[in-house]
Amino acid sequence: MPTENSSFMRRWSSEQLRAGLLDPEGLVSSATKVKSLWTGFLSFAMQENVLQVAVGVTIATAFTKLVNSLVSDILLPPISLLPWMDRNLDEKFLVLRGGGNATELYNTKAQALADGALIWTYGSFLDELMSFMGIGFALYIIANVYGMMSKESIIKNVVKCPYCKKAVSGEAKRCATCTSWLDGGEDVETSALPARASL
After folding, report:
1. Cα–Cα distance for residue pair 56/16, rounded to 1 Å
2. Which residues of 94-103 are buried (b: 16+ CB within 10 A; e: fewer)?
3. Under 8 Å CB-to-CB from 132, ≥6 apart: which residues?
4. In the structure, what pLDDT confidence band is assigned to residue 182 with cuts at 50, 70 and 90?
């Protein structure tokens, strides 16, 4: 038994079809578009250079952890043995404003923070600075070793153009920015025509 609602839906659908608003092939074309979008995403995500970047980021993360461990576990403890260092470097701090119970000195950062003191944790900064310098130095060594073992160096020789002051490869003959000669090429005769005989 048809209801008033179902007849309204049939009438509404036929009106939409006549007006061109409802495409009976719309579901098929939408599915095709979704499939095309998915295929495009997969071809983008599985490109060789995207996978190389993912592997590189993973290796870089592991390398960073390794160098951080080298700095904080191997290099910094001997520095803490120096006469003016009475604790690990990352535990060094300076109290700028005492907390509620500031009648005695704080032995650790945790005690000072628990008391509500305002502290300047310069030891943590020095620890991070040493880690950064360690990572930078290790990467520089790796880049030099790679350059010695392969024909292509990672570290490029860069000079400044004397005219526009932009950075240019040390092997360049002309500046890419201002096109001026860097090796004195403007002084060389470049004409392909033979020299005229003097009369």
Report:
1. 54
2. eeeebbeeee
3. none
4. confident
pLDDT digit string, tens, across residues 109-129:
888 888 888 899 888 888 888
Band (186; pLDDT cuts 50, 70, 90)? low
Nearest to 123 by CA among 154, 148, 89: 89
Query: Taking Cα atoms as reference points, which of 28, 56, 17, 86 lies closest to residue 154?
Result: 56
Q: Locate 62 and state its tokens.
A: 């592991």
**Contact by Cβ (8 Å): 110, 141:** no
Q: What is the pTM of this model?
A: 0.50
**Residue 69: band (very low, low, confident or very high) from pLDDT cuts 50, 70, 90:** confident
Can you tell me the distance from the alpha carbon of 125 to that of 116, in angstroms, rounded to the nearest whole number? 21
Cα pseudo-dihedral 176, 177, 182, 186, rounded to 10:
90
How many Å separate Cα 6 from the centre of its chain?
59
CB 86 within 8 A of CB 99: no
